[in-house]
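Marked as duplicate of an earlier ticket. Keeping the data here for the record.
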Amino acid sequence: MSGRGLVLVLLAMGVAGGCAVSDGAVRSSAPERPNGLKGVDLGLGFDHVVVPGDLVPGAVNDGTATVDITVVTAGGGRLTWAPGRNGGAAVRTPAYAADGVVPAAALVVRSDPGEADPLDPGAGDFVVGVDFRADPATAGRPGDDGDNLVQRGRYGEPSQLKIQLDHGVPSCRLAGSLGEVVAQGDGPVTPDHWYRLTCTRSGPSVVLRLVDLDGTAAPKEWTVAGDPGAISFEHVPLSIGAKVADRGRIADGSADQFHGTIDRVVLDVR
């Protein structure tokens, strides 16, 4: 293993200014860490008391990376606290609106442009992942062209990393100096069901892995041979739950909003 070693990024929500405790509050358990990974660099923690239904006002980093974590919205969208897996806390994204403007909301992670980008994988190996529970699809949904779970960089730009559900089918797109590599599952996930989705760039290959957290089914993996090359962002915002533009605002036209609940998010830059 080369470079600075394994850098684990556990995104676990932290409420700016704290949160009052009342009836119906839930306390999350400590974040579950992948086996073999050490050293927390960025953390958005679900390890505090929250009230389901309250707005998520932002987050603070419990790790070592210097980042700013905010909530951005459009069309009346909002993020709220919800029960997560195993009685913990999670973030509820806006539900789909069949008529009118689709509400959008996302968490946005930014780093100081005057410092080295702590979440820039470059040519090294890395893992990006998220625990999620997707809403059932609304009949038709002509505006659904991909539900973004975690994204950095946009299509057509020199670099991108993205894990999403495209009409319910999990996929990962990595783009860099040598081109793009796309790994995709073989079918849609089950709605209202907890999964862990990870995408790993390991040398000249990309591995998409789906773990059923609510059942006993064996994990599924899809491996694609290909090296996207150096993936460098120069402080482009990272978004969770929807697509954002370069300045960290919800993207015009199509936000690719994920509809459901998001729990633990991981970015491991090795």
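See parent ticket for discussion. The CA atoms of residues 205 and 226 lie 5 Å apart.
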